[in-house]
Amino acid sequence: MNCLSRRGGFVATSKVAPNLLSNLLSRMAEARAQTDALFELLPPNSFYERPIAERHRLIFYLGHLEAFDWNLFSGPLELGTHDATFDKLFAFGIDPIGGGLPTDKPGDWPNIARTEKYKSNIRARLDQALRKSDGSRDALLAGGTLLNVAIEHRLMHAETLAYLLHNLPLERKIPHPAPMSDPRPAPEPRWLTIPAGTVTLGKLRSEGTFGWDNEFEAQQVAVSEFSISAFPVTNGEYMEFVQACGYEDSRYWRPKDWEWKRQQRLEHPQYWLPRSNSAATDPDTQWEYRSMFGILPLPPSWPVHVSYAEAAAFARWAGKKLPTEAQWHRAAYGTPQGIERQYPWGDAPPDRLHGNFHSKSWHPAPVDAHPAGASAFGVQDLLGNGWEWTSTQFGPLPGFTPFPFYKGYSADFFDGKHFVMKGGSARTDVSMLRRSFRNWFQPRYPYVYATFRCVEE
User: What is the average pLDDT across 272-280?
Assistant: First the structure.
């Protein structure tokens, strides 16, 4: 994440509603507990590991979450400076694209005790100031925008931390029970026809509900008839691509993706492991899945987690395409009657019957495990279990206005190098399952919990 800009003045407004403030502070406490629990998975000597070469060492994230909150609130709450060195050190994340890999050494970072003290001191000062504040000097504070930003930013990093820890060797984590083997077969691929219709991307500012800057303003898009797979592509389906030498044939890959795949010597998805020294294309190769806390036989019914580059190559091999953001919305939220639902299943709040989300599991579930979450057209597994790649490049909706306190949050990534993802993973908080939420990543980043489904036009 980018560093926040300090805001210079205040806007007079009404006082923050006590119930709103209390609810948001409770949510903040829950989000803190969630990220604290993730760090408890690490023995002390693992805090300085870098599980993913393009990302910071894990110690950064221990300080970053509080530095972000401090830089967000210290201006509106008139708190001044806390620790200028740490506020800057922990402010800047890394977008893993271009510019080379980070070269810092463990000794460049403070020890765990100092970082923990920084964290606890910031929490104490912020909590005291927020409880005393009525928000009357700052519209964004009064309306809950800044607290929502702090909460969702933290929850986004909880998901980032999950896949960072997933890529940490097992012996570098506190042991936990490995998941059970899941031999259930993948459901038979099924295609559904989605009739032409209009979809709403984004949301209206006039609704008065929270959203990140890229979620505004609402846009109506006409979508022609198309067909879409009822389920995300499973490990079982993707195996056919691997065994058909899909990773060895440049015809299926965009030139930059092929060069990346060649340089990385990529032969299979990030979380797959060949059990023997056999070639990936050998049909007799036994495959395993590298989960957060153990190795198990590759579950054929789980969605495959891959980069955009790998998803696009599979789609080209299969003679299909990845859906656009608008097509995905139409399949997920549209109805034959023309109205749009808040969630694929309707307007009822998400619960455990609707999908695999809200950090209830460390790993995916079978793609057909939550039929109650199906859309009006019968498309399943749309929320949770893996973000879904679309072919839409991440960009502004009409009427986009950047956050005045965080101008680079979205705008820095309107560069034609990132693609929109929809849906959510097993580690996505329920608050970010709203219809307007947009995630994005660069195409050659295989670590995120992202899957895909194909369309025919």
Answer: 78
Q: Is the dihedral of CA 7, 33, 35, 46 positive or negative?
A: positive
Phi, psi dihedral angles at 223 (to 5 degrees): -120, 125
194 in Cβ contact with 227 (< 8 Å) = yes
Closest CA to 434 of 283, 261, 246, 215: 215
Nearest partner of 332 among 229, 442, 430, 236, judged by Cα = 229
Q: Is 201 helix (H, G, I), strand (E, B) or coil?
A: strand
Q: Are 210 and 350 part of one and the same domain?
A: yes
What CATH number is attached to the domain comprising 300? 3.90.1580.10
CB proximity list for 455: less than 8 A, separation 6 or greater: 226, 227, 228, 229, 320, 321, 322, 323, 327
Q: Which of 152, 172, 192 lies at the terminal end of a domain, its last residue?
A: 172
- Do 388 and 453 touch, CB atoms closer than 8 A? yes
Calculate the CA 24 to chain-centre distance. Answer: 22
Contacts of 420 (CB under 8 A, 6+ apart): 325, 390, 392, 393, 394, 438, 439, 440
Cα 64 to Cα 193, 217, 354, 360: the distances in Å are 46, 30, 33, 25
What's residue 12's pLDDT?
28
Task: Specify the range with the lowest mean pLDDT, choosing from 19-33, 233-247, 336-350.
Answer: 19-33
Helix (H, G, I), strand (E, B) or coil at 340: strand
Quick one: pLDDT band at residue 9, thresholds 50, 70, 90? Answer: very low
* Residues 251, 156 share a domain: no
Tell how far CA 61 is from the center of its chain: 16
pLDDT tens per residue across span 168-225: 999 999 999 988 999 999 999 999 999 999 999 999 999 999 999 999 999 999 999 9
- Of 90 and 14, the structure prediction assigns the larger pLDDT to 90
Residue 51 counted as domain residue: yes
**Greatest C-alpha distance within the chain:** 69
CA 321 to chain CA mean position, Å:
22
* Model pTM above 0.70: yes
Exposure of 73 in the CB half-sphere (CA atoms within 13 A): 29
Mean pLDDT of 345-355: 97
Q: Are residues 329 and 234 in the same domain?
A: yes
Per the CB < 8 A criterion, the answer to whether 398 and 217 are in contact is yes
Structure tokens at 122: 């910031």
